[in-house]
């Protein structure tokens, strides 16, 4: 049985503010935020609003198929990146597990000649071989975020989330109609 960690919205806010405070005490204010799709989008939006950074880019890369099952190689679906030359870049994702995604995205970003690249995730797994420069908390369970709970329930209907019955009804209707 998979054990889950299910942060509430309150904890997400706490994480984003804590990371922002740490960046400021390092005098690090990025020019551009690069969000890793799709889990990094909401953390990146929150961070951009806290720091007042309007410039956002996106990289669509996927290593995972589902809870605890991984593709054996990275899948890059798209790179929505330009104008990073001589810019300070912050790469954001929701969580770093092995660290491969951040590593991989770091290599892609480097090709755009930024002056500095740092990474941030809200959570990191204790076994990660490369910790992000900024993170809020170390968690050793599978995390269900407010923004990916339905993705997780789709794959594992046993996942313990709120409002599951309504979602499963919607899913049933969708499947009947298709
Ligand atoms: P890594 O490449 O560091 O092993 O994995 C990072 C990516 O896998 C993240 O972008 C995230 O989408 C996904 N991931 C890793 N661990 C978790 C987790 O505990 N919960 C969720 N929801 N996604 C995870
Ligand atoms: Mg995800
Ligand atoms: Mg992801």
UniProtKB/TrEMBL annotation:
Pfam families: Pribosyltran
Phosphoribosyltransferase domain ranges (all copies): 9-148
Domain of life, per lineage: Archaea
GO MF, one annotated term: glycosyltransferase activity
Keyword Transferase: yes
Entry keyword set: Glycosyltransferase, Transferase
Entry-linked PANTHER family: HYPOXANTHINE PHOSPHORIBOSYLTRANSFERASE, HYPOXANTHINE-GUANINE PHOSPHORIBOSYLTRANSFERASE
Name recorded for this polypeptide: Phosphoribosyltransferase
């Amino acid at each position: 049985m998979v054990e889950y960690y299910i942060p509430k919205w309150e904890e997400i806010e706490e994480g984003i503010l804590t990371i922002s405070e740490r960046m400021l005490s390092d005098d690090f204010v990025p020019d551009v935020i690069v969000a890793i799709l799709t889990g990094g989008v909401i953390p990146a939006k929150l961070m951009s609003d806290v720091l007042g950074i309007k410039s956002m880019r996106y990289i669509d890369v996927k290593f995972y198929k589902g809870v605890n099952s991984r593709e054996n190689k990275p899948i890059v679906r798209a790179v929505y990146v330009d104008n990073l030359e001589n810019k300070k870049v912050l790469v954001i994702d929701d969580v770093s597990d092995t660290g491969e995604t951040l590593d991989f995205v770091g290599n892609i970003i480097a090709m755009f000649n930024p002056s500095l690249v740092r990474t941030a995730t809200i959570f990191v797994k204790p076994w990660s071989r490369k910790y992000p420069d900024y993170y809020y908390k170390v968690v050793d369970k599978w995390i269900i975020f407010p923004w990916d709970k339905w993705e997780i329930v789709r794959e594992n209907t046993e996942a313990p989330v709120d409002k599951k019955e309504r979602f499963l009804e919607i899913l049933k209707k969708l499947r009947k109609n298709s």
